Amino acid sequence: MYLHEYQAKRLLNDYGIPTPPGFPAFSVKEALNMARELGGNRWVVKAQVHAGGRGKAGGVKLVDSIAAVEQTAQALLGKRLVTPQTGAAGKPVSALLIEAPSEIQRELYLGAVVDRARARIVFMGAAEGGMEIEELAARDANAIRRVVVDPIVGLQPFQARQMAFALGLKGEQVSQLTRIMQGLARLVCQKDALLVEINPLIVTGQGSLLALDAKITLDDNALFRHPETDSLRDPSQEDPRELTARQFGLNYISLGGNIGCMVNGAGLAMATMDLIKLHGGEPANFLDVGGGATADKVAQAFKLILSDERVRAILVNIFGGIMRCDVIAEGIISAVKEVGLELPVVVRLEGTNVELGKQMLAQSGLKLIAAEGLTDAAVKAVAAAQGRL
Ligand code: GDP
Ligand code: MN
After folding, report:
1. What is the tally of structural domains in the chain?
2. What does the pLDDT look like over 52-72, one tens digit per residue?
3. Which of 37, 68, 101 is the last residue of a domain?
4. Residues 192-228: pLDDT tens digits?
5. Cα(129)–Cα(276) distance, integer angstroms
6. CA of 42 to the centre of ligand 1 (A)
7. Are 184 and 154 spatial neighbours (Cβ–Cβ below 8 Å)?
8. Is there an atom of ligand 1 within 6 Å of 101 CB?
């Protein structure tokens, strides 16, 4: 689960990490009130979307009058912001962050991630912040300094000092960075975060460190331990199909391609996507309907795939173990009855009640393309999506 910048900054504050004074605003009127509340004569107006790259996309504006706060808020709120990270559709702007401006001496990068390969929290720091870390890594891998946290002893102050020196920090800044990194390490553990990124971490005009931007990703699998984070979810930023899928307890992830996949078992679903790509196609989604799905859940899953307007063909790949093939057939038939079917559907069924399942599909009158085995299924799905079948 992604947090908005304003939510992430509150969390940083809870862990003793300084951020510029600021307030979220959900309407133009609120934006004006917050700007007045902050005082001064310059403000930063920041679009709150679950994506970075806002600066380049016009989502971060420095303004120097209340009238300009109003204009900027009006221009951003209710619109979609397209950044290099959002895809062409962009993300809706339903909140702004109004901040007091900061004077920037230097922009640094500081991030903490859970490194799955090492099974450790790893800090990454770079003296060149502001830009995307991926770009920096591609240009100069040595520009990124890594510190690996031992889970038994935790982050050691000497490790933070090493990072501080690598970032070119001096004097009081070294102990400031140590406190920031210790706060981040606690935050990552206590909130089950997968990633916390401060980009840029700035050296202000006065020479102290300040988190100018903040990005936090929480581990979805650990959310049940953090009911306090429920209220931080913003459904407007999420893929509508993924939201629906979650309501039905389906494992669905939207991808960019045009072959809808309905598979049982995460491993088989991954293998199915691999095969589609191997044979020159692109999957539209990952979908694992699970082992104990009912016909109703299967129908929901099928409707979900059909609701994706990019989909040109559907590949149903079921190995019935706990899941019975007749339940899959029943679900598909009832979904198609409800919403119709214009697309070619390639079906590969094996396992429990396979004959019954095949018979039900054959008698349903649906135009299905039968496949034998995984390769045949993938080849036929790719051909169908390209209109060659
Ligand atoms: P992102 O583009 O989505 O990562 O948004 P950021 O919050 O990182 O802002 C982008 C850039 O805007 C930063 O790297 C800064 O250069 C600039 N910026 C943001 N806030 C301030 C501010 O208070 N003062 C100044 N001078 N620049 C700012
Ligand atoms: Mn940023």
Report:
1. 3
2. 999 999 999 999 999 999 999
3. 101
4. 999 999 999 999 999 999 999 999 999 999 999 999 9
5. 39
6. 14
7. no
8. yes
